Amino acid sequence: MITKSTVDRIMEATDIAEVIGDFVQLKKRGANFIGLSPFANERTPSFTVSPAKGIFKDFSSGKGGSAIDFLIEHEKFTYPEALKWLAKRYGIEVEETVDTTVDREEENRRESLMIVTGFAAKFFQDSMWETDEGQSIGLSYFKERGFTSETIKKFELGYSPDQWEAFTSTAIKEGYQAEFLEESGLSVKRDNGSMYDRYRGRVMFPIHSFTGRVIAFGGRTLKSDKSVPKYVNSPESQIYNKSNVLYGLYFAKKAIREKDNCYLVEGYADVISVHQAGIENVVASSGTSLTADQIRLIKKQTSNITILYDGDAAGIKAAIRGLDIALEGGLNVSIVLFPDGHDPDSYVRSVGTSNFLNYINGNKKDFIEFKTEFLLKGSENNPIERANAYADIAKSIAIIQDSLKRSEYTRIAAYKFRIDERTFLSVVNKVILDKEKKKHQEEERKRFSDNNQENQPDGLVTEAVKSDNKDLLSDFIEQYTQEKEIVRLLLLYGNRMIDWDGIANTYIGPFMIAELSDVTFDNEACKIFVEDYRKEVENGVLPDEQHFIHHPDKGVVDISVTLLATRYTLSDNWYEMHKILVTDEQANMKATILGGIFHLKKHKVGQILENLRNELQTTHNEHDQEILLNQYVRMKKVEKHISDYLGSVILK
Description:
The structure is a single chain. The strands form four sheets. Strands 1-2-3-4-5 form a five-stranded antiparallel sheet, sandwiched between helices. A five-stranded mixed sheet has the order 13-12-14-15-16, with helices on both faces. By secondary structure, the protein is of the alpha+beta class. The chain has five domains: 4-89, Alpha-Beta Complex (DNA Primase, Chain A); 112-240, DNA primase DNAg catalytic core, N-terminal domain; 243-360, Dna Topoisomerase Vi A Subunit, Chain: A, domain 2; 364-459, no CATH class; 482-651. The protein has 26 helices and 16 strands.
């Protein structure tokens, strides 16, 4: 059996458009790709791939799902074979094991680390909001930084008391095991075996996973003692790999997809201040140089990245380091440096949202312009430095995979350097050839190493872990039923905050689940979906669309992909051409969400009334008829109440 950590690495690395592009000719259309169905004979493309959502949908055959589902359908792979194919494509080593009690304990260990980290996040929040020390030190610091209470709560910021064992003793008293406190980095073991708090006296920045669970922390000291590290970050663990996490991505991913651009900053405060200013498509590499894994996380949401760094020497060097990694990852890169003495945090607080965006748009440079200016600065009369600059730029251009882009950047760079384009092209081509030669040599060495191991005993046995599921959806493109509408609303808007009737700090998903507690779902896939959503919410997790796209139940996957995939989108000039206004359901979220809930309830009440009418017709006992009639009258009142409520909500 392939280990879960390997599966996670494969899924994080996989670009569904790249994978399916190996088998289907795809063309870009907006944020998605389209092509002719590989499963049906058609002339008009109905096959859609959404890189942002990580799904494909074939409207001709009804098939849909993740990259793994595509390989299983198209190549007839088993689930493990599809995973191994993807692992080979992305250069990921596959770890396999026999499914034993040890493996289940290992998964339980990961979950235990998640649980103890979640407990710590709540402890730090409570310590800040509910204690005099937390309010006077932690909360006042965040308020001085300009963070609002809403922002502080949204990012789950907190404070660790300035005591040696405040958190550790509380956690152990609550029943959390010392080994998990130590492994998560929350507590540190002394030589005598006792434990103390790692983050004492620090304001706390929780780091969230892509799905919103707290997996690590960054703790900032407020002391001026130079011997005390300014930041202390969680060590790496089974649940936290710093090179594969972007701070703020959980809160930014939707805005990144909508804006088709990702702002990359350096620190926690940069992310929070810019996000609070209404510019939500912002993340940070925080505590590590930008990595290829982090670029892949961004690439899943957008192909455009704008690096926002300080204008000092350290900021410029950081921007230069991140540039080539972003280019190699296939991103379109722009760079903005702020005036000396400013970073994104201080600048947005100083000038406000509008001026901040105006500054970015007015000072944004593509990587060629930025790098040539930086490398040629002060080298006008130094031919050696200029030659080194040529070589450095050529290396960056050679990284670009798209040949048309590479050709255009070669032309621009030659013009800026004022050298012959053919001469500079030869430099770029030499870099590419050297890189290919090195790659070929490495492949030969690996092939030689693999050949030497051919006669070794077989490794651990693999098992097929994908079982057949009943076909829970007979038709993928019929009009949505009321139950499917609830699933659609949870998928699209469950992670949004409620913005009506003064309701505060409540997400739409948990609100809907609570409102539907008295409703029984008939559609099997919808029933499994809603029940799973309920369990996740009860465990403190707000599941996103990826949770259901990769759900073990095929019916849930099918309905999720169908509801997420949109075959047609209106063009920007639709209204000008046709003078037909199409209502945006997001313009009145109260009507959209409550309408979905109460239309379903009205439908269920209608079913109950129909059953009561049937029973009244077949029941001859007067006492039983009286009971049924009373029930019928009560349900008619409920039906009228729902109808009246629906009318008032929809009309507002």
